[in-house]
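Figure S4 source data
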Amino acid sequence: MKQFTFDEIKEKLEEWIQTDVILPEDIPSIELYMDQVTTFMDKQLSGTKRHGDDKILTKTMINNYSKNNLLPPSNRKKYSKDHIILLIYIYYMKNFLSISDIQNLLDPMTTNYFQKTEGITMSDIYSDILNLETNYKINVKKNISEVCKIAEKEFPEDSEYLKAFAMIALLSYDIYTKKQLIEQLLDYIADDEPTKAEIKEAKERSKQLEKKTRDQSK
């Protein structure tokens, strides 16, 4: 493990907690081909990469999202502004939610607002949520700074590693608690009717069972 001081970590906190966001006005209004979509996402969210060669979005990912009903079909291989908005949500949520949870959450969005031109649109929702996130970011920064102070106070004379470990442990607990809450919220607001993903999964299981039964009867 590299040698470091906790003061170095404190100095870098402001830099590390900067999160790239895609502004509503930066999302193209014209439809894009898949290559253009992946290039756009990679350019806009390059700052969120942990390693330089990490991929923000690939063709395979987009195809898998479509197969799993997270993303509506393209229009003659072209993707709209609403497609990109959904891909942005998927990009952030896939780091801590399962594909089925994301599908369940976004299904009402695509059903009620996708390609809607009157009333509340997906662009309106995206702008409103982004404003909320921008304001909430102030609280997030304060919380992280507080965690840093707690860790340093607990191990004032101990190794720099223990201070860093304490900070990581506290942040991990915060993530774990919020993930549990998100899952509970998802289960609570879930529709009693089966989702598209659940119907598809049930059909696949039925096909596999039929195939297994046929094979056993031979």
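Figure S5 source data
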Amino acid sequence: MVNKKIILASASPRRRELLSQIGMDFEVRVSDASESAVSYEPSELVKALSALKASAVFDQLSKEEKEESLVIGADTVVSLSGSIMGKPKDGQEAVNMLLGLQGRVHQVYTGVTFIFQADLREAPMKVSFFEKTDVSVYPMSQEEILSYVATGEPMDKAGAYAIQGKFAAYIKEINGDYNNVVGLPIGRLYQEMKKYD
């Protein structure tokens, strides 16, 4: 993939930071794909949504761009006892999500899809995978939850928190890839891409 132009199909500043952190050159083209998929199983849902995002951007590329580009799409959800949490619609929903998470263990799933065309005579290659991380949250008082929501930080985050932000004060334990919780399992992505060099 060294010779491919990397395109990130995501507006997430956290995903941009993670790609930059490992020295990857890339450009951002935000996907206009609707974030609705039919699966209710978290691992399948995030893979399906990441594929939708990557495909939406790849399909808009010119023939020449398709030959020289690799498009990465990603989607992250939080799952608590099998119930999927996306981004909160408002402050009250953020409070309710955090009330559910505090004092318990939940799972963070990120699905990643990358698409590239090795040969224009063949169909594009589409590779999808997911990563799961268990996260344990300390008990939180109502006051702590309200105070955190008031910062505005939870509003564009799955599960209503940012592990790399102020919510770090409430993280008890992580079992799995920390970067996966931030929004992109960057080590796994790099290793998967290397298979196609």
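The chain has a mean pLDDT of 93. Residues 101 and 175 are 16 Å apart (CA to CA).
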